[in-house]
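User: I'm curious whether this sequence folds into something compact or stays loose and floppy. Could you predict its structure so I can see for myself?
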Amino acid sequence: MLQLTESAQAALSQVIAGASKPVAGLRIQVSSGGCSGFQYALSLEEAAPEGDTVVQAGGLSVFVHPDSVALLNGATIDFTESVEGAGFVFDNPNAKSSCGCGKSFCA
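Assistant: Here's the prediction. I'll summarize afterward.
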C-alpha cells in the first residue's frame, strides 16, 4: 500500500523520539487544497484513529485516513535534505501532475 524509505523511517524515528508526548505513529491524509487540487497532511498521533489503515514500516506505524487509501496506494515516502531545506517527499504513482513547489498534486 504505502512504503517509507530507510531515510524516512530514520527521520520519523527521530521526530517521535523528540516529541513532548507519547506518539503511536504518523498519520497521513490527502485533503483538498494546494495549487494542484490535493495536498498531503502529516501529523503525529497518540493512538491510531478509528477507521484508519495501519501500515508498518521498520517498526513504525503509519496511519492512513480511510478517504486517502486509494490516493496513496503504491506511494513511497522519502526524507531528503538539500540546500533548499529538509522534508518528506512523496513519490505517488496516483499523481497525474504536481505543482512547481511539489507540495500538492492532481489525481
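Summary: The chain has two helices and nine strands. The mean pLDDT is 88.
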